Amino acid sequence: MDIKANTHVDIQKQQPKVRFPKAWRVTWSPLRVTVMLGVLAAYYFGLTGTFWAVTGEFTRWGADIMKLFGVNTGKFQYLKLIHYQGTVLTRIDGVMILGMFLGAFGAAYISNNLKWRLPMSWVRVGQALIGGMLAGFGARLAMGCNLAAFFTGIPQFSLHAWIFAVFMAAGTFVGTKIIRLPLFRTRARLVKNNNGISKYHDIGKVSKNVQEIHTVMFIIAIILTILLLIHSFAITTVLGLTVLFGLAFGFLLEKGQICFTSGFRDLWNFGRTLMLDSILAGMAISSVGTLVFIMLGRTPKIFWAGPNVIIGGFLFGMGIVIAGGCETGWMYRAMEGQVHFMLVGVGNVIGSMLLVFVWNSWAPVLAYKYPKVNLLQIFGNFGGLVVTFLLLGICYLLGQVWKRHVLKKSL
Question: Which pTM value belongs to this model?
Answer without folding.
Answer: 0.89
